[in-house]
Fold each of these.
Amino acid sequence: MEVLANGRVLTDAGFVADRVVLIDGERIVAVTAADDPRCASARRHDLDGLMLLPGFVDSQVNGGGGALFNDDPSVATIRTIGEAHRRFGTTAFLPTLISEDFTVIARAIRAVRTAIEERVPGVIGVHIEGPFINEPRKGAHDPAKIRDLDVRDVALLSSLEVGKTLVTLAPEMTTPATIRLLANEGVVISAGHTNGTFDEVTRALKSGVTGITHLFNAMSPFTHREPGAVGAALYDPDCWCGIIVDGRHVHPAALRIALACKRADRFMLVTDAMPNVGTNQDSFMLQGRKIMVKDGVCVDENGTLEGDVTIEYTGHLAFDRKENDDDDSPAQREETLRNSLKERMSTAEISEIKIENVTDPIKPYIYSYRVRVPGYAQRTGKRIFLQPGFFEHGREALFSASERKHPIYFHYPWSEEDLVTIELPAGFTLDNADAPAPFAASPISEYRPTIGVTKDGHTLLYKRNFFFGGGGNILFPVGSYVPLKKYFDMVHQSDNHTLTLKQAAATAVTP
């Protein structure tokens, strides 16, 4: 036997310093006192005060060590991923394949079967995440791969024979009978990338679904009138919940709420890790798209903008928004927001919409969403032309007529502050950081945009401050129309300011 001694051992009571761990081969025999008689004849390993805790079991691992399972579903890829994650304490994992074609799924399952038979360290099964999901909640999955689950898929998904097979699907996209059929074949089923209602997901949990994939992310949210997939997962005491606890995928407060709803042993920490784990890579390719490993908003080398947006309204603007939305259902509010964006950017893909405080008369009106806009920026040769003012993109000028017959009345004064951070594509630099010149009609209005780049040259910072109605000036006579129109035309022109990104000759983007 062997003994791991002089370490801080994690137990149910927390870390303790007066315990040792006895090991016999691949098995832990006991966590016991240092003077246990069995320790006398055991080979001793001094941990020098380090922490000793169980190995991490990760059920959602897309890649690591520069390798992505989707790119090459092979034993070699599985081995590379396992080695990369083992450095960080992962001792068991499920290589995860996101939405793919039937033949690629078959290759992935064969590779995992062989890896287990060859005793590749760590691999204990496979996670097939999609393609049986709901497109509005697709996240990073390729929509062209999404399809319905049929009998042939059931046979394939139950063919591993060794280890465990976990399948993520959207239960509203199949039937309870098909779910039961798959579960009866020994497949572990999790609901994810789902837009299912509370009732639909609850029904699935009674039909063979036993868990939820990355709780809160890529699923119908919890609201007071429709608890959605989140509500169903937290309401069912036996539902297992995978969750990404990195401070970004799930807000700390949401995490604490979830932990208060269910017992702790029904949560599973997952990483949803990508190829950059264990490397210095700041980007990778995912199903033909370049993904930048950065915070904030990303623009890929083909001009696609992708990121998270949060907008907060206060004062009169908040009141108007709440009044307009009060009679609408959550689904109608989401659809209104989605349509308003698509009217200006027809290719926009909007997901994870959250609208807050609609019925609260005091708190600000807030909405947030994730957006992806293919073709937002235009690429010509080695240059990309980009409009940094995302919030005003596609809007028309406020006044279009050349003259007016009636006074001009604004309902109330208002102010706006936009902050956009854009991660520049790899290999591209900003030709210049010139912003439109600020201007004002004091004390009624001021428009002040600023543009900058972080010291490392990787991130563009765009800030826009604008107010109108200072001094209570909101009613203007007909004779003021021409100068008012000229002023707002200047605002519109500045909002549409375009920057140029240039590809450096020595650092061309990898295809």
Note: The chain has a mean pLDDT of 88.
Amino acid sequence: MSNAIAYAHGMAKNLHPLAEVFGFPTEDMSTAANRHRTKRLCPFNNKVPNCTKDKAQNPLGVCSVFHDGEVVITCPIRFRQSWMIADDAADFFFAPNATWTTLTEVRLKDADGGSAGNIDIVVCAYDKSGKVYDFGALEVQAVYISGNVRNPFEHYMESPAKNYKMDWTNEANYPRPDYLSSSRKRLAPQLIFKGGIINAWGKKTAVALNKGFFNTLPKLPEVSKEKADIAWMIYDLKPPANAGNQYELFRERIVYTRFEPALNQITKSRPGKMEDFISHLQEKVDEKLETPPINRTFQANFGQGDPGFNGERDAVTDGVLDDSTNMQIVVVYHPLAGYEAVYTNGVLATSTTIFNTLIDPVANSGPTYVNVNTSLPGASILEYTLGTDPVNFIGESLYGGDPGLLANIKEFRIYSTALTPAQIAADDALGPNVVIGTSTNVSVSTSVSGGNLILTWPTSSALVTVLSSSSLGAGASWTTVSPKLTVVGGNYQASIPITGSAQFFRLVQ
């Protein structure tokens, strides 16, 4: 068994991105591994026994991912295995035989009292009386992920024994380590702000990071350990030899540098050829001169017949949607109420007036319902608007001058009635492939978090609109509350600020 596990990690091509989940290899079905997955535990010295990555109640328990035959650490807590990083940092910070301890997430302030961020780990040296006489800052640099790692994680957790062999290679948004963003958006700013203060105080900094991440950095000018301000502690993972064991964190090497030369190397851009940039500008100018610029918004059209602009009423969003991902778009067509609306991610983006009665259209052009009714006896308002032979498309207009939709569509639904704003928000919280529940017999529980009242009720509920009133009884006036809905563990949660007066809440459909 031990040889099989070692061979699987060292030789086999990985068909999915997950290397470790809740501290253990995904193929490990030992008692210890199953316990950690079932209870969502972190074995790497987190501040609490459970994993808290991303969401405390629904944590993303991915410690590391596969990439190009290597295992890449994506969770900073993963580096705390056996506290090797603290040992190595203390060896750099202090004289031999110093007595020291660690403090995590320590706030650092600048000269104006503003926050410069939290130091991941402060290693403090103290004397026999417990007085701190020296310290150093230990920053832990895990790697950002580009793509969606939660989807394969959720699929794996549905049945680990079955899905550890899953093939995820053809799925959209396959997750990969984003070394460039990890360097520019996290490492460089931390060195500039927190590292700058530590260096000004004459103290040392240690940076713990994965081998693959360090290899993407520019070559740093090295100095001896005695002359260094920063120690770059480079680690990697060894596959476990037996089931029930974790990957073993080991130090590959330590690179010692001065603060300013290292910072200059990391933050310095390497210019490409200016001629290539000019060619790119020329292409953009040529496109602009040949065709008008396209402002990629979203537009919902309802017209009468082909070519599509007769009596057309359009709801057009203001914001540009370029490069948007995982977006929920809802179009509500409600002629009897007199409007057409577009919601993006549960929030109203735009609306416009449309035919609001069966007799007198609001539209500036087009026949009235009475005129059309002679040729469409008994027609519904939808049939009246679309004509006798409706032609409808997703992502394409009947008018050839309109641009098409540049997007991949994961799911499309048609409802027989107009959704309410609360139903749209609930649909957004539930995500694709899940519909709003049908139960009208549900109970609401409450809790307090900070200055907010948290309402919780099951997602099987058809009741998703929250109403509030300052009193009960026949004279009570109920108004709609529109809190942001989230889904946690099969329940809706709505966070409502607590006021100084009594409030009563109820759910309606």
Note: Confidence is low (pLDDT under 50) at residues 1-11, 356-379.
Amino acid sequence: MSPLSKMDRRRFLLTSAAAATSLRALAQSPAPQTAKLTLHHDQTGPTIPANFIGLSYETQQLSNPDFFSPHNTGLIAQFRALAPNGVLRIGGNTSDVGWWKPTPTSTQPPLPANVTLHTPAGEKSPMDLAYAVTPQAVINLHHFLEATGWTCLYGINLGSSTPARAAEEAKFVAKTLGFAHQGGKLEYFQLGNEADGFPSRFRLKETWNAEAYLDDWLTAAKAVREAVPDARFGMPDVASKTAWFPTIADKLAAIGKESEIAALSHHYYFTGPPSNPKATLDNLLKTDPRVARDGEIARAAAEKLHTKFRMTEGNTCYRGGKPGMSDVFGASLWAADYCLQLASLGYAGVNLHGGDGKAVADSLGGRLPGDDLVTDDPATHPHPYYTPIAHIGDKYLLEPVAYGMMFANKFSGATIIPIDFDHGSVNATAYAAKYPAGHTQVAIINKDEHAEISLTLDGFKSACEHVLSAPSLTSAQVDFDHFNELSNFTFTKPEMAAAKSKKISPNCTTESAGKLTLTVPAATAILFTLT
């Protein structure tokens, strides 16, 4: 077992009582329900990029040059553990209140004339949270990316800045990071964050729509391209209005701007805020029809521009996540399923949001609403609650969402194979993909809290390689284990510890005739290779 296969034990004791209760319940669970899986090897779907998995951080993190820095070895280690070559997206609400400080004596510039400030109820004014980004922060970011093997999407202020300032910052960033297609670290720029929400902070509601946004964006993009002729962009980075995509794609295609658009982008949070009664684990683990709907809209618009599409910011619950939902094992299963669903829909990548609690709190007007729902020791929860990598004390720790992302990342570089998966009444999903070397990987994600599933595949041998599990859906302890051997042992949750101690694959059986039989326990995801 890898030393990264288990979460830090700081939270294990807090969940032991709940784990014992869960194991007793699972010991009395009914017989597994039979499922049927058919792989269509004669058909192919999208190929998943090697850098599919990514993280999203607030631009405000750059106000501390030591955060994304070669000296922040703890954070570097967790980035590398999560994915060997991911994509860091820098943006969020704070990207539209930051200002470029090119010299130590530079002062904060005034707001441009087209900005009409609004302050949402209960929040600080957007400009009360303004901060500076310095050249040193960008230089350190470059070294951080080199140390991690990652590239980045770099967000620049559109909401409260000017095209000239955007161009000045972009010029330094491009020169320092270099473009990824030329061996550098910058994938592309993003101008503005969640522009469909600008009427709540920076623009007049009566006159703001997709066309008005595009006018502002084209002016800023033109200035950036004059300063950086090779610049390319991800846009519109909407919070929810994917309905903007057809309008924007048609207009950009009509004026011949296709070559400048590296990707169409949008965000996705399952629900929110944390106080929303719909923000429950049970609801989170159900299939959300919005995912496929938004994917089809994004795909169609991207095809018009001959470009890619990406989910650049999202997570379980907006406004910082919900304790007991976003920071527990159920979120691991959600992340694994969500990332693989996006891959199967043809997305170029996914960036789940996180970072330090202060930066995310400032992006929300100064506080995390989830703090109002904590009834135990706040130190046992990551801040923000949904972050894939938590910063607690002097340590950086992988959180539940990260383990789901790591599970999904095992498909990077493979080509999706269409499947038929009949799982009856069990809440489960499955994905399959073929690698250039010829082998096929299958993932089965059983999100059902109580029901096990079993299935048989004829004509295959298998090595059951990875198991994502926990004592319960609400556990803060997550196991992500790698097995190298086969066994005739089929297990249920109470026997998990014994199976793992033997270093065997607990739920895959290959008979001599090439018939593969496997059982997937409740609240467990497995990934296996077919040969």
Note: The CA atoms of residues 38 and 420 lie 5 Å apart.
